[in-house]
Amino acid sequence: MPNNQFKKGELYSFITGKASTAIARRLQKKFNTAGLNITIEQWSVLYHLWKQEGISQQELCNATFRDKPSITRLVDNLEKLNLVKRVASENDRRINLIFLTKQSQKLQEETMALADETLNEALETVPTDKVDICKEVLQIVYDNLK
Amino acid sequence: MPNNQFKKGELYSFITGKASTAIARRLQKKFNTAGLNITIEQWSVLYHLWKQEGISQQELCNATFRDKPSITRLVDNLEKLNLVKRVASENDRRINLIFLTKQSQKLQEETMALADETLNEALETVPTDKVDICKEVLQIVYDNLK
DNA sequence: TTTGGATAGTTGCACAAACAACTATATGCC
DNA sequence: GGCATATAGTTGTTTGTGCAACTATCCAAA
User: Model confidence over A43-70: pLDDT tens digits?
Assistant: First the structure.
């Protein structure tokens, strides 16, 4: 039994993602308090567009680990909020390229600051080397299952 | 800056819970393949009832980190599937006590085995001591934010 | 004993996720 | 060129989540 670390009673919070749920809720509250009318999921799409805009919905699927219908609807809602714009690709008419609007460009700095703040609150009192190990383990878990 | 471990580009997967999402998806697929017609969320409620049944919906809220409407609907759906039963408390008529049915008692062994299997796949190649540190960090994160 | 506040649970609404089925376009092979 | 197949995106359905507003019950203090 090489990997029998999880006795009963310990597996629950790994599966349910207790910690990441708590982080997401905290960040959502910060968005709401700041009067930012976006969801964490919408923010996660913008996050990748801030790194590079003009990518396809399929590329957003890969980046955000979501399926195509999820991205369709997130982009729908982001478009309603005037935060992104679909532009049909000239080369391949199946593809929508997603671009930021001026409004969403303005959101980057403020939301990133709130995200940093949230993570600092989450990791208060945790030594850096333990955080590094934790990140490493979570990455391996993801790679093992993807 | 005591906790500046998260440079940009690293915070994303912590917030989105990439790893726990992958674990939950894998376990859900195992349930489906085994012909078990329940969701991970429903399973997470049963998980606590297997430890102790006859608890109130509010106690299920605390145990599963969900709000009251979420538990109301999960219990609704579990009742439709004949997996739990609401029984009004004699002492306090506001309270529903939730009990398992024979069907859900049978589910425990099989689903727990699939959950163990999933975690073993997830943690393959991860040394035990790193898993322990990871669990520790995630618990602190949760405590810091709750 | 009444009244006001707390607690348990439900309902409505908006948003999101997973899956299946669908449309439209592109591509490769005959 | 024409057809099979793959790819990009959309739509419908079920399930779950978070918030606000609501009902019912309990409890404690005037």
Answer: 999 999 999 999 999 999 999 999 999 9
